[in-house]
Amino acid sequence: MAVYALTGFSLVSLLSFGYLSWDWMKPGLVADVATDPMEKSLPPTFTRPPHIIFILTDDQGYHDIGYHGSDIQTPTLDRLAAEGVKLENYYIQPICTPSRSQLITGRYQIHTGLQHSIIRPRQPNCLPLDQVTLPQKLQEAGYSTHMVGKWHLGFYKKECLPTRRGFDTFLGSLTGNVDYYTYDNCDGPDVCGYDLHEGEDVAWDQSGKYSTFLYAQRVSKILASHSPKEPIFIYVAFQAVHTPLQSPKEYIYRYRSMGNVARRKYAAMVTCMDEAVKNITWALKKYGYYDNSVIVFSTDNGGQTFSGGSNWPLRGRKGTYWEGGVRGIGFVHSPLIKRKRRTSWALVHITDWYPTLVSLAKGNLSNVQGLDGYDVWPAISEGKESPRTEILHNIDPLYNHAKYGSLEDGFGIWNTAVQASIRVGEWKLLTGDPGYSDWIPPQTLTNFPGSWWNLERLTDGLRKSVWLFNITADPYERYDLSEQRPDVVRTLLMRLVHYNRTAIPVRYPAENPRAHPDFNGGAWGPWASEDDGEEWEGGREPLKSRNKKKKCKICKLRSFFRKLNTRLMSNRI
């Protein structure tokens, strides 16, 4: 049976889904957009370092953008991507902290100790302080640096905060999951606190403003107050479209015909985010930045399918090493691109943005050792071959070991019970437990999960611990070739062994009770002193301020009624 290089589907495979939501025959979805002859003129030259706007969305699924055939409206993102370069061989990490750490450091998570899970609010952990971050390198190159949105790289000490890691200003949340209006975050029963910060202070006065709007407005204010003659870097890490599923009701109304409630709310959040990007782009043009700007758009991991997201037609979801967890939406839009309006199949990974953007900024990389990223600007702008030929998706020694894995299954060189994944050339290898492995069509049916749910359930391979795919020919991971090509399996296992020798110990300390927001006036924030070690267990508890405790109770009460109102409104829509 023939397998097509671009789609990876045979006719029988297509029919086995019952329907195909992505119209592969529609022009412009997978093919290059036709170039206007007038666009062939050379772009402006780099007379001065470009302004860089990096936009990162949270939990947006691979299918959830217009040009991937989605039923969700994203006209701004579609237009920016069509006029720039779409990255269709672009990889991220399966969960929040790993993607953000690799973006900021240009290093695989095995080289920062963050190879297991995420940084949790009560852990005395953060991005290693010895790492020179992307914004710090841009500061060295003369850039003004600003961050707006979700940090999620640790905050137990002040040295861990964004303003201590290279950003001149910061407005956003430190944890990974907050209410879009109240900015409350609960890390377990009765462990709740407020999480919106302006610089290193709690931004109590911003409560009640929808975060997607708030963040876009802040970007506009930054641009309005800065001079376009001086280079600027703005990292916009939207909270959207992570849970909780919250959106202004006028956006939900657009999707009232969607039967699935979670998908309806999720779609509204995506479209709202799309309009926020429109406002940011408009501000770049209004204040004179656009002609010398580079806009990078990236998702942080695959979509969460039981929260409305879709990675169709890829396999898996957020938190897995299947393509649905690690293949991201990415594009670059810039007047400075030499070959615009095209789709690039160059291999690109989220670690590549560090050297790429520092090089664009004419910064100095000679004193940065051990980067795992590559400068991929020539591949993006000029269509040259990518310098990247392989990607270590991860090696996680702490994740639950696969029941049926063994050193014997790994040719005596690798324990296949360990969760790991790597891509070398066109081949991808997974060992251990890669995570939930189904193919899940968009959740548009009213009775989701419904009768079709079992159509694409994985029914074989439950006793496996090794998978091998030719990702170029089979991007949807339907044909496991591990038994047919043991030679390739062994070669890729050797690459895992190579990387594992360079890994540093996992940083995943126990949670500390001192992190409780009640000890910080009802807000999440640093709790350890500058002199405390990373494994600090704390001493005696500080005295609790009665006024702050009262403020926290009021905050929680307000949050309760807002959430109650949101649920009532949700049941009406």
Automatic annotation (TrEMBL):
Q: Which UniProt keywords apply?
A: Calcium, Glycoprotein, Hydrolase, Metal-binding
Region described as Disordered: spans on this chain: 519-544
Keyword Glycoprotein listed? The answer is yes
SUPFAM superfamilies cross-referenced by the UniProt entry: Alkaline phosphatase-like (SSF53649)
- Give the highest taxon in the source lineage: Eukaryota
Domain Sulfatase N-terminal, by residue range, is 50-361
Alphabetically, the GO molecular function entries are: metal ion binding; sulfuric ester hydrolase activity
InterPro entries (UniProt xref): Alkaline_phosphatase_core_sf, ARSB, Sulfatase_CS, Sulfatase_N
The answer on whether this UniProt entry bears the keyword Endoplasmic reticulum reads: no
> Which cofactors does this protein require?
Ca(2+)
Q: Which family does it belong to?
A: Belongs to the sulfatase family.
Q: What name is this protein filed under?
A: ARSI Arylsulfatase
Origin species, per record, is Dicaeum eximium
Its lineage reads:
Eukaryota, Metazoa, Chordata, Craniata, Vertebrata
